[in-house]
């Protein structure tokens, strides 16, 4: 096998996602809508895996974190109290010449409307306005009236739904700090810097966990969660050399943050935030106590009252998916053929195994392959493919990252064994057909790391 080492571009990932039905531009037949994508079959399966792996690590395998699913449209006072109405803004500039609008702090990432090889402001024709603050929340109206009194927002983060439920959960969940509340759901931001595929979307699925701790323990828990989240990515096969922790300088922290560290991934557009882990202090509980009049505090059995500090790991499934896809993408020459392969962790891969009859028109092979598929699909997401040459079928599975293929062939008819082909090493071995299910269960429990890990 020969590696064909080319620097990975975002276009390569976009085209694979499109070709194999992971992700489509949204509303495409109407010309699309910026920074919004629809997930196809394999995209949905991969997202489901990421969500359930996160939920498993955050809730199922712990006894200190409970789940919540709050509403997307909350009382608008929530967003006044949280500081989003006043402060969830980006500085924007308009170009009077090309009439485009850019983020003032990211001109180096944007292209001039008339000369795309230049950045806005770099040509003599560019005529940029002074920066103005632009709120990123989408506004809507609740009820029959469409005036100021009915204005509401689509949530820009899931976190506030957790803070406003602190009292409900603390009373009912029989947990004491440190304890956490985890939530997964859509968030919405009217992002102005379009492009970069799944990295910056207007509609994305966040996974956030707010961990409430006694204030003196906040620094320690902050460090704990940075490391726990870093480990989660490495255990799911992300390459160590493509992941780093970067602490925010004081001037880049959000209004609520006492300290933030980002887990950054080396995307094709450079090192960028994959996940943020913030120490939000007592900011949110104090703000909602003040604005709602409901005390959001903790009372110890001895009567001591305090407002817990909050440690928050926050990420979107979309950014994780993009990182996993970039990390997994590989091209190599096998024999005289080039293959594209997604080396995804088997637990992340959308399809766990393909079942392929070598000669589909042979009734013996076709029947056995179908029966094996129908058995396996009761337990795992597997695929049966009987169209086209076997080499093409393998390559189709390689491109969607299927870790194993079970092929039913002539020998199966003689001794009831099948071939299992490994996506990464291309090694093949034979297994009794009756043992395939156990073999697959076991293989999915094993550790996995990329053959390209340093
Ligand atoms: N509750 C804190 C919070 O929302 P954030 O840094 O604005 O903090 C947290 O967002 C995470 O949500 C980011 O690290 C990123 O993974 C994801 N995220 C934020 N904006 C996004 C967008 N426009 N598109 C995709 N993911 C986004």
Structure description:
- There is one protein chain.
- The chain has 454 residues and is α+β, with helices and mostly antiparallel strands.
- It is 29% helix and 28% strand.
- The strands form 7 sheets. It has a 7-stranded mixed beta sheet with strand order 4-10-11-17-14-13-12. The protein has a 5-stranded mixed beta sheet with strand order 21-20-22-23-24, sandwiched between helices.
- β23 (417-422) and β24 form a beta hairpin.
- The longest helix has 20 residues, at 41-60.
- It starts with a strand and ends in a 9-residue tail after the last helix.
- The mean pLDDT is 95.
- Bound molecules: glycyl-adenosine-5'-phosphate.
In short:
Helix content is 29%, strand content 28%. With 454 residues, the protein is α+β, with helices and mostly antiparallel strands. Helix 2 packs across helix 9 (317-328).
Structural class: alpha+beta
Radius of gyration: 25 Å
Query: Regions with pLDDT < 50 over 5+ consecutive residues?
Result: none
Q: Determine the N-to-C terminus distance.
A: 18 Å
Helix content: 25-40%
How many β-strand stretches?
A: 24
Oligomerization state: single chain
Bound molecules: glycyl-adenosine-5'-phosphate
Mean pLDDT: 95
Described by the principal axes of the CA atoms, the overall outline is: globular
How much of the sequence lies in strands comes to 25-35%
Biggest sheet descriptor: 7 strands, mixed
How do the strands of the widest beta sheet line up side by side? Answer: 4-10-11-17-14-13-12
């Amino acid at each position: 096998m020969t590696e064909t080492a080319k620097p990975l571009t975002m276009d390569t990932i976009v085209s694979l996602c499109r070709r194999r039905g992971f992700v489509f531009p949204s509303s495409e037949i109407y010309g699309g809508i910026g920074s919004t994508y629809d997930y196809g079959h394999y995209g949905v399966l991969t997202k489901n895996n990421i969500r359930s792996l996160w939920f498993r690590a955050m809730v199922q395998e712990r006894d200190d974190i409970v789940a919540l699913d709050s509403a997307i449209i909350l009382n608008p006072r929530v967003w006044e109290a949280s500081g989003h109405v006043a402060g969830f803004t980006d500085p924007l500039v308009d170009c009077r010449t090309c009439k485009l609008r850019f983020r003032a702090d990211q001109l180096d990432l944007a292209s001039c409307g008339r000369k795309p090889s230049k950045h806005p402001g770099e040509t003599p024709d560019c005529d940029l306005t002074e920066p103005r603050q632009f709120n990123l929340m989408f506004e809507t109206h609740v009820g029959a009236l469409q005036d100021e009194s009915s204005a509401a927002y689509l949530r820009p983060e899931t976190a506030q739904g957790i803070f406003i439920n602190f009292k409900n959960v603390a009373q009912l969940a029989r947990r004491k700090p440190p304890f956490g509340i985890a939530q997964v759901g859509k968030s919405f931001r009217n992002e102005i810097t379009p492009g970069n595929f799944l990295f910056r979307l207007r509609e994305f699925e966040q996974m956030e966990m707010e961990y409430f701790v006694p204030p003196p323990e906040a620094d320690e828990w902050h460090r704990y969660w940075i490391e726990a989240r870093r480990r989660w990515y490495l255990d799911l096969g992300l390459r160590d050399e493509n992941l780093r922790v970067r602490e925010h300088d004081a001037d880049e922290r959000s209004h609520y943050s006492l300290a933030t560290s980002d887990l950054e991934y080396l995307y094709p557009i450079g090192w960028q935030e994959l996940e943020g882990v913030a120490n939000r202090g007592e900011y949110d509980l104090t703000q909602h106590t003040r604005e709602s009049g409901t005390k959001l505090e903790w009372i110890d059995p001895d009567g001591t009252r305090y407002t817990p500090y909050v440690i928050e790991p926050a990420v979107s499934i979309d950014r994780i998916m993009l990182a996993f896809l970039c990390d997994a993408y590989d091209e190599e020459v096998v024999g005289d053929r080039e293959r594209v392969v997604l080396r995804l962790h088997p637990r992340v891969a959308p399809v766990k195994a393909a079942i392929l009859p070598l000669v589909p028109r042979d009734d013996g092979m076709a029947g056995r392959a179908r029966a094996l598929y129908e058995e396996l699909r009761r337990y795992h997401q597997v695929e049966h493919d009987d169209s086209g040459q076997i080499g093409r079928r393998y390559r189709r599975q390689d491109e969607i990252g299927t870790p194993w293929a079970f092929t039913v062939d002539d020998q199966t008819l003689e001794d009831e064994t099948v071939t299992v082909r490994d996506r990464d090493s291309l090694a093949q071995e034979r297994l009794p057909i009756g043992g395939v299910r156990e073999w697959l269960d076991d293989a999915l429990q094993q550790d996995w790391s990329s053959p390209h890990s340093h």
